[in-house]
Every structure is written in C-alpha cells, then in structure tokens.
Amino acid sequence: MMFSHCLVYPINETQICLGLKKRGHGMGYYNGFGGKLLAGESPEAAAVRELHEECHIEAAEDSLEAVAALTLHYPDDFTVHMKVFLLPTWQGESQATEEMEPHWFSFTDLPLATMWQTDAAWLPRVLAGERLTGQAKFAADGVTVLTQEYQPMQF
Question: Could you say which of 65, 75, 92, 142 is the most buried, measured as most Cβ atoms within 10 Å of its Cβ?
C-alpha cells in the first residue's frame, strides 16, 4: 500500500517550529506539520491545508520551499512518499490544536531525542541549506530505523 504525504516546517532566520504530536502515529514525537494528500491534492496544497489544521498558521503555496523528497518503508509493504517544505513566510501565530502543540527551537538545538530517528540524519542538513532525496527502512516496530541514506538533490 502506498500513500503520498507532505511535511512543512515554518522557519525564521535561526529557529524552526515543530509540533509535538498529541495523538495517533508518532504521538509524543516532535515533527513537522503535515500528513496525507487528499485525492487530487498537490503536496503544496496539502502542506498549506495541514499546516492550518494542525497549528492555525495561514500560508500561500508559493511561499513553500521544497527541500527534500523522502521514501519511508514500513513493515507490511507500507511505503510513504513524502515531499518536505520549509516555510519562511506565513500569517498568524502558531496555536495548539487537538493534534499538535507547536514549539520553536533553535536550528542548533533541535529536540532530536524526541524526534523520529530519521529526522536526526536529514533535518539538520536541510536547515544548513542542503536539498536532499533519500529513503529509510523501519523495523517491525515501525519506529526503529534499520537503514537510511540521503543524497543531495536539485528541486
């Protein structure tokens, strides 16, 4: 089974906004805002929609900066293809929702111990200016990373 997903990270010059997941898959982890694309929806449209649903920030699709294309392989042949964006401009203040609690972190002090293992490998590189493509394979628990690799990519 294959799904298309998106992730978006609001940023300023030195900080990134991460959401603490309050329920569902990834509960207790900090992550970007995003999720599954609806039928016929572009990754950009989904990123804008999910960002508003999860933290009440308003954004324009043309403000999104594509920074990574990731393929995540989970047990039972479940694969996620994810487009990742940084968002340097938006309207509104981040607010908690039933799903996410937004928090701002310095680029140099990310809460890696409470993020997905894969994030520690690729997110600091993206915040340093790299654009990446890559993949990771998860163990049967759906959390432990068995393998991962990331390479530079042009968008």
Answer: 65
